[in-house]
Amino acid sequence: MDTKKYEALLASARLGSFTKAAQELGYTQSGLTHMMNALEQELGFPLLERGHYGTRLTERGAELEPAILQFVEAGKALEAQIDAVRRQESQSVRVGAYSSMAVHWLPAILQRFRDICPNVRVDVQMAGIEELYGWVHSGQVELAFVSRQDDLKADFLPLKEDTLVAVLPDEPAFDGWKTFPVSAFEDREFLMPALGFTRDIMPMFRRHHVHPRIRKTTVDDPVVISMVAHGLGVSIMTELIMSGRSDPTVKVLPIEPRTFRELGIVVRSRRELKPAVQELIQCAAETIREMQS
Predict the structure, then answer these.
(1) CA distance 248 to 240
(2) Can you give the pLDDT at residue 214?
(3) Alpha-carbon distance 285 to 291, whole Å?
(4) CA atoms of 54 and 179, how far apart (whole Å)
(5) 57: Cβ–Cβ under 8 A, 6 or more apart, which residues?
(6) In this predicted structure, what is the pLDDT of residue 293?
(7) What's the CATH class of domain 160-261?
(8) Are 36 and 7 spatial neighbours (Cβ–Cβ below 8 Å)?
(9) Environment class of residue 83 by beta-carbon count within 10 Å: exposed (0-12), middle (13-18) or buried (19+)?
(10) Residue 194: is it exposed, middle or buried by C-beta count within 10 angstroms (0-12/13-18/19+)?
């Protein structure tokens, strides 16, 4: 039911004129008259009497007036609540991220964003590749900081290349090595990091026809690094993941030839971004550009 029709009905009766009611509500006189005729036809009985004295409620209209008043007020209250929900939604941004990007990038990005949008709350969740892309598609998050995955469809906004590095036990066998050839992974015990990192690593192995003895893990990166340190195998991380780590029990070497994953932001559609999300993306681009300079 359309509360606007009933609001116009009450105004017509209160002001005693379609013309005055139309002026108050912003309708044309003919438009309001048509609206009242349609309402009476819809209900099956007249609500207003028209005459030289103006307009007034019929007996049935007067009988319904208290209920109509309640209905109109309830409609206004509902609209106000809907507006409040919309404002609340517009004041928050839901973000997903890899743990490495959340640790090394998000604090600086969010600090810049808070200076520009102090009243917007940012909710951050961490997960792996498939889950983050899934959250973007389902709307659970509005954007996610991830690596590019062309088969997981979404709009991708690139930010930085993140070079893959070999993580090795600190053993004499690797003394003097400056780089780690991809071919050296052949037939080695390889600890595959969890959270979908296989998507960033396996294409390199396939491209160079290298076949390590892969041992999948379900633990986080520090545990994998500790396992490498204890001689349980070798692994691959990225420069971002290893940033700030100083662990003398492992060696970190560039992989030859250089291989990288492309880090950036995914959104379901660039055309659907609300202003706060656009501002956060701009803050991310500026922050990462400054980090690289």
Answers:
(1) 18
(2) 95
(3) 10
(4) 93
(5) 13, 47, 48, 49, 65
(6) 75
(7) alpha beta
(8) no
(9) exposed
(10) middle
What is the chain's length?
Answer: 293
Domain boundaries, the chain: 3-89, 93-158+264-292, 160-261
Hey, which residues does 195 pair with through a beta bridge?
none
Cα distance between residue 154 and residue 284, in whole Å: 18
Q: Which residue has the tokens 């990225």?
A: 238
pTM: 0.68
Q: How far apart are CA 63 and CA 240, in angstroms?
A: 73
Helices assigned H by DSSP within the chain = 3-15, 18-25, 29-43, 59-90, 99-104, 106-116, 129-138, 198-207, 221-229, 239-242, 275-292
Distance from chain centroid for Cα 77: 30
pLDDT in tens, 176-232: 999 999 999 999 999 999 877 788 899 999 999 999 999 998 888 899 999 999 999
pLDDT of residue 90: 62
Contacts of 15 (CB under 8 A, 6+ apart): 21, 24
CATH tag for 3-89 (out of 2.40.30.70, 3.40.1190.10, 1.10.287.690, 1.10.10.10): 1.10.10.10
The architecture in CATH of the region 93-158+264-292 reads 3-Layer(aba) Sandwich (3.40)
Residue closest to 195 by CA, chosen among 96, 98, 105: 98
pLDDT at 89: 55
Summarised one tens digit per residue, pLDDT across range 8-53 is 999 999 999 999 999 999 999 999 999 999 999 999 999 999 888 8
